[in-house]
Amino acid sequence: MGFFGRKTVAALVAGFSLLIAGCTASTGGESASKPSDKAGGGSPVTVGMTYIPNVQFAPAYVADKEGLFTAEGVAAKLRHHGTDEGLFTALLAGEEDVVIASADEMLQARAQGMDLISVGQYYQKYPTKIMVKDDSAIRSVADLKGKKVGLPGEFGSNWFGLLAALKDSGMTRADIDVQSIGFTQLAALKSDKVDAVVGFSNNDGVQFELADVPVREIDLAKTGEPPLVGMNIVTTSQFAKNHADALKHTLQALSKGMQVCVDDPARAVDITKSYDQNLTSDEALASTKATLEATNKLFAPAGKVDFTQDVDQWKRMNDFLSQIEGVLGSKVDVTEAVTNEYLEQ
């Protein structure tokens, strides 16, 4: 991979902000959702979430609404970022204590010297897939040779996923015709502007299904997982050191909230309505339910939530991203950047 110059973390996070379709972004520093402002006893912890309220953050909404944070002795406040705010700006400024973010963005920020550590795995599976129409002759990554492949641009998780898939099949960017199509995967594939698209299984895959456009998803790796890690839970080493108990209990509450999402999606969607003011129509609710069901496959593929991180997988991602021009610059010491010590064993 490595075919673009250095991009700042701030630029790369724009891709994540558009992961979700059908929502309107907030422009202020606080979300247009209904964040918790619970006061009273317990350790104060502000949980940061990116940009716009969405059901992918339902574990936090459930933990807040159902009193799971309170039961763990945490006085939690949920905070969504504004679109003009850096992903880790509030965390580093002490305005947030943990933030849910993609692992590749965290690793890039760490490589730039930011004091960040990953303390829990939010997605057990990497969400990116290659998608083709169901009647397409393309059935493997190797079949993409000479084909037009659309994705938002040469940055972020979709781009890293595509390059990982090419490497796994012994191919390079030169073997395909890369098309930067913005966040228009549905329209581009439906109209045959491209032969395949790269997107998120819990966003683009859902939108194809809701639009009644049958697609087939192609895994990035022929066997196992690609050398990438999905969403994770990030804090600073200073907060973790000074507030270890609060961090442990915050993770426990989020884990319990996520298990509710997996076990009772309808209940989680109903709770999400209190935090996402866009969920007012039957169509929006149907889309949200479908999105959560797809996201549950990333939360807990086997049905059991587990925030434990695979440090070896992080090392593989570190090695992979370090080979891409302008992404890391140099490798990160993963043993200092990733820890499971704050998870209940």
TrEMBL record:
Membrane-spanning residues: none
Keywords recorded for this protein, A-Z: Signal
A Pfam match: NMT1
InterPro entries assigned to the protein according to its UniProt record, in alphabetical order: NMT1/THI5 (IPR027939), SsuA/THI5 (IPR015168)
Domain SsuA/THI5-like residue range list: 54-268
Signal sequence extent: 1-25
Protein name (Swiss-Prot/TrEMBL): ABC transporter substrate-binding protein
Origin species: Gleimia hominis
